[in-house]
Amino acid sequence: MRTLYLHIGFHKTGSSSLQLALYNNRSNLLDVGWEFLSLDKLGNSSSFIKIKGSESMEYEVSSDFDGFLGKSTQDNVIISGEHFSLLNNEEEISKLKETILCYFDKVVIIVYLRRQDKLALSFKQQAAKCSVPKLMLSSCLCGHSASALPELTDDLKKYLDFESKIKIWCNIFGKESVSLRLFEKNNLIDGDICSDFPRIINLPYSLESIRVNEGVSRLYSLCSHLLINLDYPSVIVDKVRSKINRDSRKVMPSKKEAQEFYSVFENKNHTLFDWFGLEQSFDGSFEDYPDESNYKFTEEEFNSILGIISTLSYKADCLTEKEIDIVRDSALLLEKVDLKKANSLMLIANRFRPHGGFIREKIEYYKSLLK
Length: 371
Hints:
The chain is an alpha/beta fold and 371 residues long. It contains 16 helices and seven strands. Strand 3 (49-52) and strand 4 (58-61) form a beta hairpin. Helix 4 runs parallel beside helix 8 (162-173). The protein is elongated and about 80 Å long.
């Protein structure tokens, strides 16, 4: 009997570590009669899931997935791609099942769930690695607002609605075909997904733990979201970030903010776990969060970022007119919020466009108000 073990994520549940561990052990897996298929050298097959729709994010399985499955040669095959967890449409999941059953007799779906506030916090930090908005899924779903946790848009709510989504997968593939795991150290075998995953699928081979795709520092994250949100060109975003001193601190919401975010999903989680017959549940503690959030710049930090921007080794003619406009317009957006910061940005625009009449007028206007 040919069996496909499809690991579908979710994101930020150690998927990258598991995928790389599986990829690095491809030959060893073949020696014990198992095969790991992947699209890239990191072990990830997420690219088979395509984003469609302009007003709301909808997802579909690429037609190339059929041929990919056809390349498999063993009776036990593993594929991993956290983007599969995006699928929440019965028609698309049904098509996925039909495609798989053309090659396999049995399917096992492995899902790791992380408490929504923790997943969203980590996903928002992932979005801070962007230089261009909406180039990565994390940017599309979490945005770049000045906050630790992302805004709960309709698209993000659908993504984080574990109950509705898992029930669809169970209805299509059968509840008995879905293995539901909680991504929490106390609920994982040996506290690690690289130990947990092989055991739950009865893989006759152990994997060593690998740590990849670590988060970014607090100031790096704040700086990225600020510049991306203000439409700074990627060349400036990358240049500024390269000069930031990184430390071990992470962006954190307050305990109250995290509790309020999770409360949107808490009852639905309990309903899912009860329906699924899961004895475990998410850890209900919020003690990891501080009493006060830390996602706002201090005056010193903001001035440091402006200083980096103002001393970039660009000549005026090295920036396009559009890029200078972005710096100028960023100042205009800030002038009603923080006049000092708006003035600093306008001075930078003046450096690149020293003969701009409007910019000079604004600088004089700001100067008069700041006296």
